[in-house]
Design goal:
Distance between the termini: 20 Å
Number of helices: 12
Shape: elongated
Oligomer: single chain
Helix content: 25-40%
Radius of gyration: 24 Å
Length: 386
């Protein structure tokens, strides 16, 4: 059967098709998904992708909830599920064993597409990437997700494009894995990583400068500093310290390369931020660190409104697929909100989209047999190239 042929006779809500339209130029180039035996695939990659986008968009609470919807809901059965239907065993087999290469390809290509379409919010500050980890509650049977006795957790390590408010890169580990090693993998030369105190490492500060990867990282207040040169501070500024320094104890853990240390105070809290960005003002450095909270807001929104951490799979492979599909859904929403409303993603627009899909589905179902209404005609495959 030619690729995508199974979708040509489906009826889809216009808004869901519109949401997924950016995939049209990506999926034809995705690595082919092949059966590992003589038996044909029960669920093609396109079916798996659509099902998981639908899972996140409609806030299903579990994999079983999604499968029941695919089996019993007329719209989902005709437009999301494979033409022959989907069984629980086939769905979970796909989640556990195949598709991760294809999901990673779609995520990376969709991220590039979103980066081209979405405007930069802070171009004067450069390419800003907030970096942080987020714990995922696991179950005791997830033996790979080490955390502590009596508790299992996994951890995502994400790079978040501050200028465009979209995720850039993703890594998944057990809950005990360190976060600092992923900075070099997330950042590209010329980009500025924004990090909290957990990422403070004087050896890494030297390494990132060698790699030409910039950083704005909060450090502990009691860190030893050796001042090499002080910079003037404007009057009435929140900044109280601005200097070129070496950090750490000489002969023990002192940085080899000098860096800049900015101290400032907001609402009675003093922040100390280390950076290699000498091209900006101290106030801009403070502004950049404040923008780090955008990744915290992203994590909270993502978990709450897209059900990303409601476990479908207990394997590391399957959880990675689930997280990638959540990131893909978020990127699709980011593009949709920009193109349709000129806005960034918001729950208001997501709810509006959900209601549109529901209303369009009801309209299709209410059409009498033989109607010539456009909404009841077969549409072109959702993912087919124009």
């Amino acid at each position: 059967m030619p690729r995508f042929q199974s979708f040509k006779k489906t009826y889809a809500a216009r808004s869901f098709k519109q949401l997924c339209h950016p995939l049209a130029t990506i999926l034809p180039s995705a690595p082919p998904l092949e059966s590992r035996c003589n038996r044909p695939l029960q669920m093609e990659f396109e079916h798996q992708l659509k099902a998981l986008i639908f899972f996140h968009l409609e806030e299903h609470t579990s994999g079983r909830h999604l499968i029941q919807t695919l089996q019993e809901d007329e719209y989902a059965r005709n437009n999301i599920a494979p033409p022959g239907g989907i069984q629980k065993s086939s769905f979970f087999e796909a989640m556990h064993e195949r598709g991760i290469e294809q999901f990673m390809f779609v995520f990376q290509e969709l991220q590039k597409q979103a980066s081209t379409l979405l405007p930069r919010k802070f171009p004067e500050l450069g390419k800003l990437i907030a970096i942080d980890g987020s714990l995922i509650d696991a179950v005791l049977s997830m033996h790979w997700a080490d955390y502590r006795d009596g508790a299992k957790k996994a951890k995502t390590h994400i790079g978040f494009d501050i200028n465009r408010s979209i995720p850039r890169k993703i890594f998944l580990t057990d809950g005990n894995s360190g976060e600092r090693p992923f900075v070099s993998q997330i950042l590209e030369p010329g980009e500025t990583g924004i990090m909290d105190r957990g990422y403070q490492c004087h050896q890494k500060f030297d390494l990132w400068q060698t790699e030409e990867k910039h950083f704005v990282c909060r450090i502990k207040a009691n860190t030893k500093k050796t001042c090499l040169e002080s910079y003037p501070i404007p009057p009435d500024s929140i900044v109280c310290y601005d200097a070129k320094v070496l950090l750490g104890q000489p002969g023990t853990n002192q940085t080899e390369k000098p860096l800049r240390l900015v101290g400032y105070q907001v609402e009675g809290i003093r922040y100390w931020v280390a950076t290699d960005r000498f091209d900006l003002t101290a106030e801009q450095i403070a502004q950049i660190y404040k923008l780090r909270w955008d990744i915290e807001k992203f994590f909270a929104w993502w978990k709450r409104h897209l059900r990303v951490y409601h476990l479908i799979s207990r394997s590391q492979y399957g959880l990675m697929i689930q997280i990638l599909s959540g990131l893909i859904t978020y990127l699709l929403l980011a593009i949709y909100c920009h193109e349709q409303h000129g806005e960034r993603v918001s729950i208001k627009r997501v709810r509006e989209l959900r209601n549109k899909i529901l209303n369009e589905t009801r309209a299709v179902e209410s059409e009498p047999c033989g109607s010539e209404d456009q909404s009841h005609r077969p549409i072109q495959n959702l993912y087919a190239s124009p």
